[in-house]
Amino acid sequence: HEASAGRLGGWRASGLPVAEARWLDLSHFAGGRAILARDVFPEMLMAAEFAIGMAGTANEQAMGHGLPLIVVPGRGNQGVSYMRMKRAFYGPAAIEVSRIETDLAPALDALLGDPARQAKMRAEGRVRMGGPGASAAIATVILGLMEGARNG
Questions:
Q1: With contact defined as beta carbons under 8 Å apart, do 76 and 57 qualify?
Q2: From CA 87, how far away is CA 32, in angstroms rounded?
Q3: Which region holds residue 55: left if phi is over 0, alpha if psi is between -120 and 50, else beta?
Q4: What is the spatial distance between Cα 141 and Cα 139, in angstroms, rounded to a whole number?
Q5: What percent of the chain has pLDDT over 90?
């Protein structure tokens, strides 16, 4: 089944109907290709070269994996004011673009054409997020505190 290219803005989806697909392979009439997926976020992070995001936790996970990040403000509580608040946290690990569709492609082209900036963004994201294992360490501390409270 193929989705209508007009409905997808020049993109054509191949494979299962869009509503049923876990992976969606998109091709653009101008030669571009993208794979969209759901329920496979960790696997996509491991396979990705960069991330484009609109929300906090997913962006932070991408940064922690060392992915250069392009951030687009969402709507509502994750809009422009949210982006202003997150700007200091993201620092040089992210590039912020507006919601205007034509702003994303030039930012992505500039990033892909600048390996030195990519390397800096990768390193900065890892530093800002820290290494893996924080959840396990936090759980260990909490369990220790609970055990101490029970015995104390």
A1: no
A2: 30
A3: beta
A4: 5
A5: 36
